[in-house]
Structures are given as C-alpha cells and as structure tokens.
Automatic annotation (TrEMBL):
Recorded GO MF terms: heme binding; iron ion binding; long-chain fatty acid omega-hydroxylase activity; steroid hydroxylase activity
Protein name per UniProt: Cytochrome P450 2U1
InterPro entries: Cyt_P450, Cyt_P450_CS, Cyt_P450_E_grp-I, Cyt_P450_sf, Cytochrome_P450_fam2
EC number(s) recorded for this UniProt protein: 1.14.14.80
Annotated function: A cytochrome P450 monooxygenase involved in the metabolism of arachidonic acid and its conjugates. Mechanistically, uses molecular oxygen inserting one oxygen atom into a substrate, and reducing the second into a water molecule, with two electrons provided by NADPH via cytochrome P450 reductase (CPR; NADPH-ferrihemoprotein reductase). Acts as an omega and omega-1 hydroxylase for arachidonic acid and possibly for other long chain fatty acids. May modulate the arachidonic acid signaling pathway and play a role in other fatty acid signaling processes.
Topology in membrane: Multi-pass membrane protein
Length: 502
C-alpha cells in the first residue's frame, strides 16, 4: 500500500470538514442576517460574512447619501453580521436625536485604545449615563472658568492669530501649504486652556503632538474595523493600519501623562492654572470616595479628546476657508471690504463685531457647510426598543448619523456643490441662521466644543483676511475643491501665496 493511498483519504476528509465549517458559518450568518432584517429597515444587499463592508470602504457619507435615494432616509447596513441603522436627512436625524432622544442618545461599547482602564471613556464614547452628565458638566464649567465664551478667551485667540500672521508674513509671497500652520494655531488655543501654555511653531514637542493628531485623523473609517471586529485582522492592509493607529494613540497618551505629571509637581489647590489643574483639584476633593469617576485614566482620555476634537475641526475648516477664498476671489474681496469698513486697517476683530459683518458671517457659514469636516456624527446606540418610521429598531442597535446628507441636501441647498454665501442672507442683507446647519450634530450629544470653535473661526478668519489676500501660486493649476475623507473631511493638499494687504 502506497503512502499516498493512506494520506489522500485523510486530506479529503479534512477538506470536506473545512468546506462543511465554511458552509455552516455562511448559513448561520445568513440566518442571523435574515432574522434581523425582518425587524430592521431594509438596505443594500451585502455579501455573506462581510456584509456591506467593501461598499463602505469608499467615501462613506457620499455612499450613504446615494443609498438613501433608493432605500429611503432610514436603512440598514452590515459590517460582518452586525447591523447598523443609517439615518439620512434633517427630518429623520432630528426625529431620532431630538424627538426620541431618550432612546438614541447613547454610545455603543467600544474599546478605549491604549487605556488600562476601559471604563474611562471621556465624553465622546461614554454612554448616556449619570457619569457622562457629571463629566460634561464639569468640563463645560472648567472651560468657562478658563475663558471660553469670555473676553479673556478672545484675547488668547487673537494672540495666537498674531503669531500665525507673523509666520505667514515670513513666507514673503512664496508658495507654501498653510494646513500645518492652522493646526499649530488651533492646537495652541486648546493647549493654553488645557496645559496653560502654548508651543512655539518650531518646538519639537509641539511638532510631535501635531504629528500624532494628524496621524489620528488620516486613517479611514473602515481601517479601524479590526479594533471592533478582530476577525478583520485577516486583511493585511486593515491590520497594518489599525496597529499603526493604536501605536499613535499610545504615544499621544504618553504625551498627556507627561504633562499631567509635570502639573502634579507644581500643583497648588489655591492657584488653579488650567484644565489639568482643575481636574487634579476635583480628584483631590473626592479622595476616599470609592465611587469617584475622576480617575487618572479618565483625566487622560478627556484631555486626549479635547485635543483631537479641538484641533482638527477648527484647523480643517480654516484650511477650507482659504481654499474657497482662492477659488472665489470675488467673494474674498467682498469679505475684505466688509472687514475694512468695520475694523479699518489696524483694529483687531472681536465677537462684538460679528453682528456688524453679515456677509462675513454668511461666508463662514457656507464654508462650514461645504467643508463638513465631521461628515458622520460619532456613532449612536439605542438604549431601548423603538418603533421608528414604520420599523422596529431593537435595543442595542448601532446608529450611523450622516450629517453630510443634510449639509449637501439639494432640497435644502439648491446646487449644494456651489459655493454661495447668500444662502445665509435674507432679502435685506442681514445674516439668517438655518436650523439645518447641524455641523456639530444635534440633541443631547451636541458637540461641547461648538461655542469655542465658532469664536476661533470668526476671529482667525477675519484677522488673516484683514492682513492677507490668498491666491494660487503664479503658473500653478487652480486647487481642487474635492475633499479627502478620513475620520473627517479635509481639502486635498495644495499650495498658496499669502499676499500682504496694503
């Protein structure tokens, strides 16, 4: 008897077993899919095992908006066997996040990357619990104490705007990319609130912090799947991207811990200098309380989220702002004329001037709409069964909120890809607010940094346009208005010339 005659039956048996196991997985997955599909809104058909994963690896907000044309404003997609209900359009999103806020305001369980304490979720990932309410109240109060919404904060932003202007002036009409300078400026505003100090633009520590923030937002949403679905690690590109993302978050946490340690060395409960000190004081007050949620890791996580959200949104929107001014020089000129008429050549802007500058405010609103720097809200999670728009959505369902579908809805904004500040002006030329401008989401999980971001945008924008006219480099092609989707939505890299105004 040959050795092959002995081995072949065993090989055939193993092959048959493998085939059987694959078949069982496919059947079970399909059965789970069909069972959940009977209660959830219908949506695009996916593949066995992976669901709609490959379709969602593209520009997700745009894909979801296209699917809504076929399946309606509420539909279901699958990442592997996990269903996600997608909300599109202002009406559906408001009905969920405002009218049904009791059910739709929580967060799904997600791993806190690089943290030894998985209960420390900061504000962004904390479910809608008493812990969330406690820390949101503390954070908002502490930020107000250090100037948010006050004149003192305006002064800090204007100091940073002057530092930014000084760096731009040194370019002396040379072509450069302004993206990193905006990140420097917005990061320094957050740093002054949280750390009590700012970084010089050539400071190695500042550059290191900026690099970590930039790498965080450069990852695509689908590249994070292995973090939530370990099975996705079998795809080499996803495995590599997710591991790089995790390593970057570990470095960012180490940077924050270093700052906290320095603050502990000089901490004085009678002299609270910044947000780090405020949190340390609150922790000290609760010493001995076994139920205290003011832990070391919660401290790190809240600060991490403040830096990520506070730096990227503002810097990206300012980057879009100068891009749109380059693409629309006539609008740039109108904004500058209004700035000149209100401020003249020497007076610095303040928030008191905003009501006197309706065209500038309208332009900033149109920039924010088209920039859509956070096109998808952070994922929501249902805390109970709900009958929503004719469908039964069970407790524990993940919910995707597509803000892009509102900001680019042609029914709300005719020709949504056209840059037109007059959308925000009434017949008399006064600024007109639009409730559909949900760039910071809506409901109970409205972004807590909305107020600070709006102040920064107005002061930075008016300050630099008072001093510079932005143009494409001579002989260079006009930059593209098509953005790049990562965790956010940013302009494709481009160079510009900042011509000093006389």
């Amino acid at each position: 008897m040959s050795i092959m005659s002995v081995l072949l039956p065993a090989v055939d048996w193993l092959w048959s077993l493998q085939t059987l196991l694959v078949a069982v997985v496919v059947i079970v997955t399909t059965a789970m899919w069909k069972r959940s599909a009977t209660t959830l809104p219908p949506g695009p058909r996916g593949l066995p095992l992976v669901g709609n994963l490959f379709s969602m690896s593209k520009d997700i907000p745009v894909v979801f908006q296209e699917w809504s044309k076929k399946y309606g404003d509420v539909f279901t997609v699958y990442a592997f066997s996990q269903p996600r209900v997608v909300l599109n359009g202002f009406s559906a999103i408001r009905e969920a996040l405002v009218t049904n806020a009791d059910v739709f305001s929580s967060r799904p369980p997600v791993p806190v990357l690089g943290s030894p304490d998985q209960s420390a979720k900061g504000l962004l990932f904390e479910p809608y619990t008493p812990r969330y309410k406690e820390h949101k109240k503390f954070t908002m109060s502490a930020l107000r104490d250090f100037g948010v919404g006050k004149r003192s904060m305006e002064g800090k932003i204007l100091e940073e705007a002057q530092a930014l202007s000084d760096v731009i002036s040194k370019k002396e009409n040379q072509a450069f990319c302004i993206s990193r300078l905006f990140k420097n400026a917005s990061c320094n505003v957050i740093s002054s609130l949280v750390f009590g100090s700012r970084y010089e633009y050539d400071d190695p520590k500042g550059k290191e912090l900026l690099q970590m923030i930039q790498e965080t937002f450069s990852i695509k949403r689908h590249q994070m799947l292995p973090i939530i679905f370990p099975a996705a690690r079998i795809i080499p590109s996803l495995k590599k991207a997710s591991e790089g993302f995790l390593d970057n978050q570990l470095k960012l946490r180490a940077h924050i811990r270093e700052q906290i340690a320095k603050h502990k060395e000089t901490f004085d409960p009678n002299d609270i200098r910044d947000f780090l000190d405020a949190f340390l004081l609150e922790t000290q007050k609760r010493e001995g309380d076994e139920n205290s949620t003011f832990t070391k890791e919660q401290h790190v996580e809240i600060v991490r989220q403040l830096f990520l959200a506070g730096t990227d949104t503002t810097a990206n929107t300012l980057h879009w702002a100068v891009l749109f001014m380059i693409l629309h020089p006539d609008i740039q000129q109108k904004v500058q004329q209004e700035i000149d008429s209100v401020l003249g050549p020497d007076q610095d802007p303040s928030m008191d001037h905003r009501s006197q500058m309706p065209y500038t405010e309208a332009t900033l609103s149109e920039i924010s709409r088209m920039a859509a720097t956070a096109p998808m809200a952070t994922r929501h999670f249902t805390t109970g069964d709900v009958f929503f728009r004719g469908y039964h959505i069970p407790k524990g369902t993940r919910v995707e909120v597509n803000l892009w579908s509102v900001l680019y809805d042609p029914q709300l904004w005719p020709e949504p890809n056209k840059f037109d500040p007059t959308r925000f002006l009434d017949d008399s030329g006064k600024f007109s607010r639009r409730e559909e401008m949900i760039t910071f989401s809506m409901g109970r999980r409205l972004c807590p940094g909305e107020r600070l971001t709006k102040v920064e945008l107005f002061l930075f924008f008016t300050f630099i346009l008072q001093r510079f006219t932005f143009k494409p480099p001579e002989g260079s092609p006009i930059p593209s208005a098509k953005g790049v989707f990562g965790l956010g939505h940013s302009p494709a890299p481009f160079q510009l010339v900042a011509e000093p105004r006389k």
